[in-house]
Write a structure and sequence with these properties.
alpha/beta; 295 residues; single chain; 9 helices; seven-stranded mixed beta sheet
């Protein structure tokens, strides 16, 4: 199961003390790359969530998905909620550029408590990889449920599959580098979860967790981002950035051979690096779990 970063970013599971303002350009560019996946997810939700009055994006980051909600539901007011003021400023700027400023708001504060400051209940509350940052995930879902209007929908994007950028055998180093990186990332993610304040271990059966929060009509669907080789420059830049981040965050946990392979993949002067090789691709899958508050 993939545990990408709450703003749709970091396959290296860097959930520690992150400078979100510094990471903002990366967060935006990655979310923009994943827009086709998000659009399919939002269109899936729109089949059952009709004419919502208020949509809340809990853990919005720089607002790429928030603005997609504004586009998908042109009659709705959208509120982006995040703990980072600089990211919310970017969200407001994006909404303004897209002509949605008059029905777009922001709310700064830590989840889930800040949701209590909403002026009125949400018809759709979306949490994209933000719940796994909270120690008690079941309690967080219960708090989100309390902020839903009767008949409102809670949708969480959690899980899926780890991303893939390269063939199993890349022609040097031991085959299966990305699979071994995933193992290290899962272990790091487990440590992050255990170290969160008030951490509670729970079976991450999201439909069951949503049901335990008092919701019904649970449903799940996985959405694919498939950008095959040869990739466009923007996709290649994403791969370079993602693997660079992986090197920074978990490099110390890789063995010497895998570290040397990763360094070669990131060397712009090496024709076998991801800067140049023709077999680079982007393949990712994110799962959305949704449920409804009883009327």
């Amino acid at each position: 199961m993939a545990h990408d970063h709450k703003h749709d970013h970091k396959h290296a599971h860097d959930h520690g003390d992150i400078d979100w303002a510094e990471m903002a350009p990366l967060l935006e560019s990655e979310a923009e790359l994943f827009t086709p996946l998000y659009e399919r997810a939002l269109n899936w939700l729109a089949k059952e969530v009709t004419e919502p009055g208020l949509i809340v994006d809990a853990g919005s980051g720089p607002g790429v998905i928030s603005c997609l909600f504004a586009e998908t539901f042109p009659g709705a007011r959208v509120v982006a909620v995040d703990g980072s003021g600089p990211l919310l400023e970017r969200a407001r700027d994006r909404a303004g550029r897209q002509g949605a400023a008059d029905r777009f708001g922001t709310l700064a504060g830590e989840l889930p408590g800040v949701l209590g400051e909403l002026d009125y209940p949400a018809d759709l509350l979306w949490a994209s990889r933000s719940i796994h940052h909270l120690g008690d995930q079941a309690a967080a879902l219960a708090a989100c449920t309390e902020r839903l209007a009767p008949g409102g929908t809670l949708a969480v994007m959690e899980g899926g599959l780890p991303p893939r950028f390269l063939p199993r055998d890349i022609g040097f180093g031991r085959p299966g580098l990305q699979a071994r990186i995933n193992v290290v990332e899962e272990e790091r993610f487990g440590r992050m979860r255990a170290d969160l304040p008030g951490s509670v271990a729970v079976v991450e059966d999201w439909p069951a967790l949503l049901a335990s929060a008092g919701l019904h009509h649970t449903r799940s669907r996985t959405f694919l981002l498939d950008l095959p080789a040869p990739v466009a420059d923007r996709s290649r830049a994403h791969v370079v950035t993602a693997l660079t981040r992986t090197r920074e965050v978990i490099g110390e946990y890789l063995d010497a051979d895998d570290l040397a392979t990763l360094d070669r993949l990131l060397d712009p002067d090496d024709k076998a690096s991801v800067h140049h090789r023709p077999d680079v691709f982007v393949l990712a899958a994110h799962t959305v779990h949704a449920a409804v508050r009883p009327v």
